[in-house]
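An example makes the point: we print one protein in full, the chain in one-letter code, the fold tokenised, without further comment:
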Amino acid sequence: MATITYDANLTNPDEILKRIALAGYDSDQFLAPDKAYAMLSECCQYERINKKRSHHTEL
């Protein structure tokens, strides 16, 4: 869990979550691309079996 402070005039929560997903991390709204996830260090990878692609936007 993270707390993020941002300027609402410059971005929005969905854009932030998309960028996080593109860095390799899934959220409730967006799934990280498999290639981005695979590039995470082994210590940063996690079990993704609970993520159902039909309920998320895949980037």
Observations:
- The helical segments are 13-22, 34-38.
- Residues 13-22 form the longest helix (10 residues).
